[in-house]
From TrEMBL:
PANTHER family: MAJOR FACILITATOR SUPERFAMILY PROTEIN, SPINSTER. It is a multi-pass membrane protein. GO terms for cellular component: membrane. It is found in: Membrane. The chain crosses the membrane at residues 86-104, 116-136, 142-163, 184-203, 209-228, 287-310, 322-343, 364-381, 393-414, 426-448. Its main location: membrane. It comes from Ditylum brightwellii. This is Major facilitator superfamily (MFS) profile domain-containing protein. Keywords: Membrane, Transmembrane, Transmembrane helix, Transport. The keyword Transport applies.
Length: 453
């Protein structure tokens, strides 16, 4: 099979009419990748909801009458670690190998079978969660959390490059947002860990992690069966025509073909040189990475510390928070992401076809997250200063509704502006940027300990 030429950014951005009849591969591609995203987030976020640093738990020791009850419910009491240690565990422990592996994972997504990468990595983080449920010390959890971080680094680069290659360009924002909605669905399932891991249930924190791990293993098995085999996972054989339009039917034929031979890569190509090439693409790409870093700082801090904060602020509503928070994340987060992706597709299509627009396709997409970010600032202020639980949950819902529209458009712009042969590396850098944002929750943990002293 003759490799297609490298696609220029200008051609890749065209909404060519040739893709108007291409099928939207929801069941065969988008849905399996959504399951991967849900499993990923559920596994990595369950920890956030299985700790309690409220004043009533600070003086509990192994000799306290209520120790067994609280140790059954909360990991920090059972394994005896502080809020500062939790901040490290939830962020830096996960990020250490996650960050180191991100660029390499991106390059592997450009050069290796992406289905194998997804299935093997999802099995790894699921087994890590299952193993965490039988851990007996803080150091055990640190080790397993790091392994989980290593495995999770491979998910996004492989998934987003598959979406770019197999989904018609006019739907790529929606498809990316659908995959990104797995973050909110997985976070909703993790939020319910407050109930499944509560002191009054049989499962406890160990059972909650075991459930996440077992479901992840089942999910990985299902994805391995349903997701098409990736026989064109190298940068010289992307299945696009000369206009940058995905020919899905051709991709499926190539997927099932046994005669396809991968094109060899230059032995001198390295992850660092590819990363340099990505950053050299344009000023927009460089500023996009900077904006993504600050967005991850905010999002990760909220995600990691919201449960301890609301448990501390409204101690009588812990069970209600588990249910309401799960609904907010699952409904408002998913709705924001899906609507943001769909609107960005429409704006991009209109920008590409109009001669009167003041901006191009990618700028049209980025208007959505910019608008959402500015709206979220006063809404988050209202959330933090609400005097009632109901008021706090209302403003939290509004925050998710306006702020979570950014992910699909940002990824679509990145994959559109960067040459396709560097798509996996670009997504790995995107993931690495998120990993660097984990410094914010760690700092928050230190500040929390200072205020409690």
């Amino acid at each position: 099979i003759k490799a297609t030429p490298i696609i220029t950014t200008e051609k890749a951005n065209n909404f060519d009419s040739n893709d108007s009849n291409d099928p939207y591969p929801f069941l065969s591609v988008v849905l399996p990748l959504l399951f991967i995203s849900i499993s990923n987030q559920w596994s990595r976020s369950s920890l956030y909801y299985l700790v309690d640093f409220s004043p009533e738990t600070l003086d509990i020791t192994s000799s306290s009458p209520s120790f067994n009850q609280y140790a059954h419910a909360f990991m920090n009491i059972d394994l005896n670690f502080t809020a500062e240690q939790y901040g490290f565990l939830a962020s830096a422990a996960f990020t250490s190998l996650f960050a180191l592996a991100s660029l390499y994972a991106g390059k592997m997504a450009d050069t290796h079978d992406r289905r194998i990468l997804l299935v093997s990595s999802s099995l790894a983080w699921s087994i890590a969660a299952l193993s965490m449920s039988i851990s007996h010390s803080y150091n055990d959890v640190i080790f397993l959390r790091s392994i989980s971080g290593l495995a999770c680094a491979f998910a996004a680069p492989a998934s987003y490059t598959l979406l770019r290659d197999l989904v018609p360009r006019k739907h790529v924002g929606t498809a990316s947002a659908t995959y990104g909605s797995g973050v909110y669905l997985g976070e909703s399932l993790a939020s319910l860990s407050i109930l499944t891991g509560g002191a009054s249930t049989v499962l406890g924190w160990r059972g909650a992690l075991a459930v996440a791990g077992v479901c992840g293993i089942l999910c990985a098995t299902l994805v391995g069966i349903v997701l098409p085999e990736d026989k064109f996972g190298n940068r010289d054989s992307r299945n696009k025509d000369v206009n940058g339009v995905v020919d899905f039917s051709t991709a499926i034929k190539l997927t099932s073909s046994k005669s396809l031979e991968p094109t060899s890569l230059s032995s001198q190509s390295t992850a660092l040189s590819d990363a340099s090439a990505v950053l050299s693409t344009s000023n927009r790409v460089r500023f996009l990475f900077l904006a993504v870093f600050f967005r991850f700082c905010a999002g990760l801090t909220i995600g990691i510390w919201s449960a301890p904060f609301f448990r501390l602020a409204f101690p009588d509503d812990a069970s209600s928070y588990a249910i309401v928070n799960a609904m907010i994340i699952g409904v408002c987060g998913v709705a924001s992401g899906m609507i943001g992706g769909w609107v960005s597709d429409r704006l991009a299509e209109k920008s590409a076809s109009s001669t009167t627009m003041l901006w191009d396709e990618s700028t049209g997409r980025l208007l959505i997250p910019i608008f959402g970010a500015f709206l979220a600032i006063p809404i988050w202020h209202m959330t933090m200063n609400a005097t009632t639980f109901e008021g706090a949950m209302f403003w939290l819902a509004m925050k998710y509704l306006v702020a979570e529209c950014w992910f699909g458009p940002a990824v679509a712009v990145l994959q559109s502006d960067v040459p396709s042969k560097y798509g996996g590396t670009a997504q790995g850098m995107f993931t690495l940027t998120g990993a660097m944002g984990n410094i914010a929750p760690s700092v928050m943990g230190i500040l929390f300990c200072w205020t409690m002293d």
